[in-house]
Amino acid sequence: MKMRTGADRLRHTVGFELCGMLLSVPFLSLVTGQSPAHLGALTIGFALLAAGWNYLYNLGVDHWMLRVLGRLEKRLWERVLHALLFELGFLLIALPLTAWWLGISLWQALWLDIGMALFYVVYAFFYNLAYDRLFPLPASQPV
Predict the structure, then answer these.
(1) Residues 137/4, Cβ–Cβ less than 8 Å
(2) How far apart are CA 118 and CA 55, in angstroms?
(3) Which of 17, 47, 86, 109 lies at a CB distance of 3.0 to 4.6 Å from 99, suitable for a disulfide?
């Protein structure tokens, strides 16, 4: 079995983000009463912010692990902690921005974020299932 190509991974990522926005922005508009354009700008901003946070966070973790632990390989519990701290850090960045952009309280922004996280878990499952059926893995080539 061959792995997916870089171009295929890029198509997957771009498709995931675009379809996610196309599904979530109208729903968020109904829930919050905000215009789709206003919410679309927020989701695009958060996609870019998440990419930047991902880069900085992982760079910082790698430097810390190398300096303190003398290694970069993560054990299972370190991977779980890594993921949780990433999400917590992004939440701390995104929560006040969401509240400010939408003119809502931090508490309301937290509930909105929890709802979006639940939406994206379900969405990711079905998106990946559909993607794998539309674009199956390349077949192995005989040696």
Answers:
(1) yes
(2) 24
(3) 109
Phi, psi of 120, rounded to the nearest 5 degrees: -70, -25
With the CA atoms of 11, 124, 105 and 27 taken in that order, what torsion angle do they form, in degrees rounded to the nearest 10?
80
User: Terminal CA-to-CA distance of the chain, rounded, Å?
Assistant: 12
Beta carbons of 2 and 138 less than 8 angstroms apart: yes
**Location of structure tokens 């996610």:** 20
Which amino acid is present at 42?
A: L
Answer yes or no: are the C-beta atoms of 35 and 29 closer than 8 Å: yes
Q: Quote the pTM value.
A: 0.72
Asked if 19 contacts 130 with a C-beta cutoff of 8 angstroms, the reply is no
At 131-141, the pLDDT tens digits run 999 998 877 54
Residues 133, 106: Cα–Cα separation, whole Å: 40
State pLDDT tens for residues 27-75: 999 988 999 999 999 999 988 888 888 888 888 888 898 899 988 888 8
